[in-house]
Protein backbone atom coordinates (compact mmCIF):
# COMPACT_ATOMS: atom_id res chain seq x y z
CA UNK A 1 0.00 0.00 0.00
CA UNK A 2 2.80 2.36 0.98
CA UNK A 3 4.83 1.77 -2.18
CA UNK A 4 1.89 2.50 -4.55
CA UNK A 5 1.21 5.88 -2.87
CA UNK A 6 4.93 6.70 -3.16
CA UNK A 7 4.75 5.78 -6.84
CA UNK A 8 1.75 8.09 -7.37
CA UNK A 9 3.58 10.87 -5.52
CA UNK A 10 6.60 10.48 -7.79
CA UNK A 11 4.38 10.49 -10.92
CA UNK A 12 2.59 13.67 -9.78
CA UNK A 13 5.92 15.41 -9.11
CA UNK A 14 7.22 14.36 -12.53
CA UNK A 15 4.10 15.83 -14.21
CA UNK A 16 4.58 19.09 -12.29
CA UNK A 17 8.21 19.33 -13.38
CA UNK A 18 7.37 18.70 -17.05
CA UNK A 19 4.59 21.33 -16.95
CA UNK A 20 6.92 23.86 -15.30
CA UNK A 21 9.16 24.59 -18.34
CA UNK A 22 6.06 25.20 -20.47
CA UNK A 23 4.70 27.63 -17.88
CA UNK A 24 8.03 29.45 -17.80
CA UNK A 25 8.07 29.87 -21.60
CA UNK A 26 4.47 31.10 -21.69
CA UNK A 27 5.26 33.59 -18.91
CA UNK A 28 8.36 34.80 -20.76
CA UNK A 29 6.41 35.16 -24.00
CA UNK A 30 3.65 37.13 -22.24
CA UNK A 31 6.23 39.38 -20.59
CA UNK A 32 7.94 39.94 -23.96
CA UNK A 33 4.63 40.88 -25.61
CA UNK A 34 3.83 43.33 -22.81
CA UNK A 35 7.31 44.85 -23.10
CA UNK A 36 7.04 45.27 -26.88
CA UNK A 37 3.54 46.76 -26.58
CA UNK A 38 4.83 49.21 -23.95
CA UNK A 39 7.69 50.26 -26.24
CA UNK A 40 5.27 50.91 -29.12
CA UNK A 41 2.96 52.89 -26.83
CA UNK A 42 5.82 55.01 -25.48
CA UNK A 43 7.10 55.57 -29.03
CA UNK A 44 3.67 56.88 -30.07
CA UNK A 45 3.68 59.55 -27.31
CA UNK A 46 7.40 60.34 -27.25
CA UNK A 47 6.90 63.89 -28.55
CA UNK A 48 5.44 64.83 -25.14
CA UNK A 49 8.84 64.38 -23.50
CA UNK A 50 10.79 66.68 -25.82
CA UNK A 51 11.47 70.24 -24.73
CA UNK A 52 13.63 71.39 -27.65
CA UNK A 53 12.60 71.63 -31.29
CA UNK A 54 14.86 70.92 -34.32
CA UNK A 55 13.44 73.80 -36.40
CA UNK A 56 13.91 76.33 -33.58
CA UNK A 57 17.45 75.10 -32.96
CA UNK A 58 18.25 75.49 -36.67
CA UNK A 59 17.02 79.09 -36.54
CA UNK A 60 19.10 79.64 -33.39
CA UNK A 61 22.22 78.22 -35.09
CA UNK A 62 21.69 80.52 -38.09
CA UNK A 63 21.20 83.52 -35.78
CA UNK A 64 24.43 82.60 -33.94
CA UNK A 65 26.33 82.47 -37.25
CA UNK A 66 24.92 85.87 -38.26
CA UNK A 67 25.73 87.47 -34.89
CA UNK A 68 29.32 86.16 -34.68
CA UNK A 69 30.66 85.31 -38.14
CA UNK A 70 33.85 83.20 -37.96
CA UNK A 71 33.86 83.43 -34.15
CA UNK A 72 33.01 80.01 -32.73
CA UNK A 73 33.22 81.14 -29.08
CA UNK A 74 30.83 84.01 -29.85
CA UNK A 75 28.40 81.59 -31.51
CA UNK A 76 28.46 79.27 -28.50
CA UNK A 77 27.85 82.21 -26.16
CA UNK A 78 24.94 83.41 -28.34
CA UNK A 79 23.37 79.93 -28.33
CA UNK A 80 23.68 79.41 -24.57
CA UNK A 81 22.44 82.90 -23.63
CA UNK A 82 19.46 82.55 -25.98
CA UNK A 83 18.54 79.12 -24.59
CA UNK A 84 18.85 80.41 -21.01
CA UNK A 85 16.54 83.33 -21.83
CA UNK A 86 14.03 81.10 -23.66
CA UNK A 87 13.82 78.13 -21.28
CA UNK A 88 13.51 78.65 -17.52
CA UNK A 89 15.45 76.27 -15.27
CA UNK A 90 12.14 74.76 -14.08
CA UNK A 91 11.59 73.37 -17.60
CA UNK A 92 15.08 72.29 -18.66
CA UNK A 93 18.51 71.97 -17.05
CA UNK A 94 21.14 73.83 -19.07
CA UNK A 95 24.87 73.78 -18.48
CA UNK A 96 25.92 77.43 -18.87
CA UNK A 97 29.61 76.81 -18.16
CA UNK A 98 31.04 76.86 -21.69
CA UNK A 99 34.49 75.96 -20.33
CA UNK A 100 33.37 72.34 -19.69
CA UNK A 101 34.71 70.75 -22.86
CA UNK A 102 35.63 67.05 -22.93
CA UNK A 103 37.07 64.74 -25.58
CA UNK A 104 34.68 62.45 -27.38
CA UNK A 105 35.77 59.33 -29.32
CA UNK A 106 33.02 57.57 -31.23
CA UNK A 107 33.03 55.53 -34.42
CA UNK A 108 36.70 56.29 -35.02
CA UNK A 109 36.11 60.06 -35.01
CA UNK A 110 37.60 62.21 -32.28
CA UNK A 111 36.58 65.69 -31.30
CA UNK A 112 35.61 67.75 -28.29
CA UNK A 113 32.14 68.41 -26.96
CA UNK A 114 30.46 70.83 -24.63
CA UNK A 115 27.25 69.36 -23.18
CA UNK A 116 24.58 72.05 -22.96
CA UNK A 117 21.72 69.70 -22.03
CA UNK A 118 21.32 65.94 -21.60
CA UNK A 119 18.34 63.83 -20.54
CA UNK A 120 17.05 60.34 -21.35
CA UNK A 121 15.04 61.68 -24.32
CA UNK A 122 17.26 64.40 -25.81
CA UNK A 123 20.68 66.01 -25.69
CA UNK A 124 22.19 69.21 -27.04
CA UNK A 125 25.94 69.64 -27.45
CA UNK A 126 28.51 71.66 -29.34
CA UNK A 127 30.79 69.18 -31.10
CA UNK A 128 33.80 69.76 -33.29
CA UNK A 129 37.55 69.90 -33.72
CA UNK A 130 40.06 72.46 -34.96
CA UNK A 131 42.11 69.58 -36.46
CA UNK A 132 39.45 67.75 -38.48
CA UNK A 133 38.21 64.18 -38.03
CA UNK A 134 36.23 61.45 -39.74
CA UNK A 135 34.53 58.22 -38.79
CA UNK A 136 31.29 56.27 -38.54
CA UNK A 137 28.15 58.00 -37.25
CA UNK A 138 26.99 54.88 -35.46
CA UNK A 139 23.52 53.35 -35.62
CA UNK A 140 21.35 55.27 -33.17
CA UNK A 141 17.92 55.01 -31.57
CA UNK A 142 17.52 58.78 -31.84
CA UNK A 143 17.18 61.35 -34.63
CA UNK A 144 20.36 63.40 -34.84
CA UNK A 145 20.58 66.97 -36.18
CA UNK A 146 24.02 68.48 -36.91
CA UNK A 147 23.60 72.26 -37.28
CA UNK A 148 26.91 73.28 -38.84
CA UNK A 149 28.23 76.51 -37.29
CA UNK A 150 31.70 76.81 -38.86
CA UNK A 151 33.65 74.66 -41.29
CA UNK A 152 32.10 71.95 -43.43
CA UNK A 153 30.89 68.40 -42.90
CA UNK A 154 30.83 65.72 -45.58
CA UNK A 155 28.88 62.45 -45.42
CA UNK A 156 27.75 59.48 -47.46
CA UNK A 157 25.65 56.35 -47.07
CA UNK A 158 26.50 52.92 -48.52
CA UNK A 159 25.52 52.93 -52.18
CA UNK A 160 25.88 56.68 -52.64
CA UNK A 161 28.49 57.51 -55.23
CA UNK A 162 28.64 61.21 -54.41
CA UNK A 163 29.11 62.86 -51.06
CA UNK A 164 26.69 65.11 -49.22
CA UNK A 165 28.10 68.54 -48.28
CA UNK A 166 26.97 70.54 -45.26
CA UNK A 167 28.31 74.12 -45.09
CA UNK A 168 27.73 76.59 -42.22
CA UNK A 169 24.03 77.24 -41.60
CA UNK A 170 22.90 73.86 -42.96
CA UNK A 171 21.53 70.87 -41.06
CA UNK A 172 22.70 67.30 -41.50
CA UNK A 173 19.74 65.22 -40.29
CA UNK A 174 20.55 61.61 -39.49
CA UNK A 175 17.23 59.75 -38.94
CA UNK A 176 17.26 57.09 -36.25
CA UNK A 177 18.31 53.69 -37.50
CA UNK A 178 20.55 55.05 -40.28
CA UNK A 179 24.34 55.18 -40.42
CA UNK A 180 26.85 57.07 -42.54
CA UNK A 181 30.53 57.80 -42.84
CA UNK A 182 31.20 61.45 -42.10
CA UNK A 183 34.08 63.90 -42.12
CA UNK A 184 34.40 67.20 -40.30
CA UNK A 185 37.07 69.39 -41.85
CA UNK A 186 39.60 71.44 -39.92
CA UNK A 187 37.87 73.98 -37.71
CA UNK A 188 34.41 72.44 -38.08
CA UNK A 189 32.00 72.85 -35.15
CA UNK A 190 28.31 72.03 -34.96
CA UNK A 191 25.35 72.41 -32.64
CA UNK A 192 24.26 68.76 -32.37
CA UNK A 193 20.77 67.87 -31.18
CA UNK A 194 19.54 64.30 -30.67
CA UNK A 195 16.00 63.31 -29.72
CA UNK A 196 14.76 59.80 -29.01
CA UNK A 197 16.17 57.07 -26.82
CA UNK A 198 19.38 58.96 -26.00
CA UNK A 199 20.06 56.89 -22.88
CA UNK A 200 21.38 54.05 -25.07
CA UNK A 201 23.78 56.25 -27.08
TrEMBL record:
GO terms for biological process: ergosterol biosynthetic process. It comes from Lentinula detonsa. Pathway: Steroid metabolism; ergosterol biosynthesis. InterPro entries: ERG2_sigma1_rcpt-like (IPR006716). It is found in: Endoplasmic reticulum membrane. The keyword Amino-acid biosynthesis does not apply. Keywords: Endoplasmic reticulum, Membrane, Receptor, Transmembrane, Transmembrane helix. This is C-8 sterol isomerase. Its main location: endoplasmic reticulum. Its EC number is 5.-.-.-. It comes from the Eukaryota. One of its GO terms (cellular component) is endoplasmic reticulum membrane. Belongs to the ERG2 family.
Amino acid sequence: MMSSSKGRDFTNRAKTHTANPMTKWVSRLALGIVLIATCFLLDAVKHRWYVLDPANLHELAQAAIASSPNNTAGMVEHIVSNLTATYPSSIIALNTNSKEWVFNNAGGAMGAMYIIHASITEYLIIFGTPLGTEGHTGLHTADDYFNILVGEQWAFSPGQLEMERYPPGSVHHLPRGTAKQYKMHEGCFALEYARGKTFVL
